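Troubleshooting log. The previous structure file for this entry was overwritten by mistake, so regenerating from the original sequence record. Sequence copied from the archived sheet and checked twice against the printout by T.R.
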Amino acid sequence: MQIGFLTAALRDLSLPEIVRWAGETGFPAIEVAAWPIDDPRRLNPAHLDVRHLDAPRLTEQLGEAGVTISSIAYYENHLHPDPRERAARHDHLRACIDAAAALGVPSVGTFIGRDTTATVAAGLRQAEEIFPAFVETARSAGVEIVIENCLMSGWHPDGYPANLAYSPELWDWMFELGVWLNYDPSHLVGIGIDPVAALRPYVGRTRHAQAKDVEILPGRIERTGFGGNAVDRSDQWDHAWWRYRLPGLGVVDWAGVVRTLVDEGFSGVLSIEHEDPVHGGSVDAVQKGILLARETLRTALTSAKSSPA
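Regenerated output below.
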């Protein structure tokens, strides 16, 4: 198992700059953000222009730095209720698959998503019509699609989970579509699920993993409950009683997560996803945060490898 990081937190740096920094600091792998370059909203970072890809040059830069790309990251809603928005997302996902094939990257990470005007059951049927074609395109290109179990509650007007991969209840169904799991333990905390217990039966279906933690904010859940704010949703991403932190600064049992991955034979990349508001505000602060997170994960990995299961 290797420790890498998702480039999204370093949105002010170019991909060559990130590759160089990763090599200089000893990261063997990066998960590269690849939202559309021409997205007028500019909400998400676009470090890799998958439609105008210079694969030989990027491959050369990666080789010089001693870094690989663990996955291409395009986490979007593929069940968006607007047909035009949905079609645009599908088109970009296919472009990400093509880019992964050209670069020899093993996977593309994304979401299932959810049509928030429909029930969960209806959403499952929609996904069953859409995803097999993506999976076949990816398989033909030697690429796997990995789905992160993020809640994406900000997509739902009432803050309910809006990515139909958010709990183990949905993972078995998801695997039947031919996709794999990009496991992130942080997203299970907010819905009352033990991340270690949830992971253990599914390590064999996990092709990629992300490392993010959760801090429980004292005195909040007693007022809102697990669902968070029901009335004041001025910030659609405010979960009210918890917030994301770097690994080691929250409640996730990293020793347990890493030991479970190691014991069950996971050999992929554990990618640090920096969304910690305390360790942000500048490139330097984010880089220091990523390095701090790596120390937590290294300690857990060393312990898991040196002691018997």
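The chain has a mean pLDDT of 96. Archived copy saved in two places this time.
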